[in-house]
Amino acid sequence: MIVTLGVHASRSGDLLEPDLLRVEPEVPLSLYVDSFGNHCHRLVAPAGVLRLRGSGLVADSGLPDPVLPWLEQQPVEKLPEESLLFLLASRFCESDLLSPLAWSRFEAAPGGWGRVQAICDFVHQHVRFDYGRSSPTKSALQTFESREGVCRDFAHLAIALCRCMNIPARYCTGYLSDIEVPPPHTAMDFHAWFEAYLGDGWHVFDPRNNTPRIGRILMARGRDAADVALTTSFGPSELVSFQVWTA
Questions:
Q1: How would you classify the pairing of strands 148-149 and 128-129?
Q2: Which of 25, 81, 100, 174 has its CA 20 to 30 A from that of 195?
Q3: Contact (CB, 8 A) for 171 and 192
Q4: Alpha helix locations (H) across 71-188?
Q5: Would you state the pLDDT for residue 133?
Q6: pLDDT score, position 18
């Protein structure tokens, strides 16, 4: 198995307690950094029940996600080489198939931050959140057509539309608390959002919530969900249960 359950390296300096992966029964763990800069563990799971557990205490600024409406979109020829991969179609983000739709809807939108926000507004309004209306193989195009999904699907559709408009976009997964969010609160879960390259850096957008949030803790980044699976099993396995808490 490959397991990606730790806090991302970009937040490792904020850890107030070690961010350790615990496995029951104990097996040898090998830590490596993948091609996207994510911390991953390798292990050989014995037959029977395997329990994975992790926890961390992270110092956070307490500030909401930044909103920087003056940031402009870079022309493709001026983008840094490391961002170009995130312009391409990927397993769950079929920007090649969604391009006509994107240009018809967003060509007239304000450039830069305004265009990415217009895409998030569209996805937030177009897709209905429903835990029962997604699957591990659901793509951006399927989400657009069904108009239903979970945060993963919101992110995939927004990423694909950004790439159609020549804006690099990458998938993110992590923890998101309910700090300063009025009740009722949803059940705690892992969360998906994305980052778009504007100005000279990457910036957070969240089409599922579509409002700045506090206490966002990044775990992994990639082209889409296929690159940042929490667990990848090379052999038959069944997820029996899981519990997430963030506060």
A1: parallel
A2: 100
A3: yes
A4: 81-84, 95-106, 113-126, 140-146, 151-164
A5: 77
A6: 85
- Give the tens place of pLDDT for each residue, 183-234: 877 777 889 999 999 999 999 999 999 999 999 999 999 999 999 999 999 9
CB hemisphere CA count around 117 (13 angstroms): 14
Tens-digit pLDDT profile for residues 34-90: 999 999 999 999 999 999 998 889 999 999 999 999 999 999 999 999 999 999 999
The token pair that represents 189 in the structure block: 């879960």
Q: SS3 for 50? A: coil
For residue 25, whether the previous peptide bond is cis, meaning omega lies within 30 degrees of 0, is: yes
> Is 204:159 a contact under the CB 8 Å cutoff?
no
- Closest to 151 (Cα-Cα) out of 123, 177, 170: 123
Give me 85's structure tokens.
Answer: 């991969």
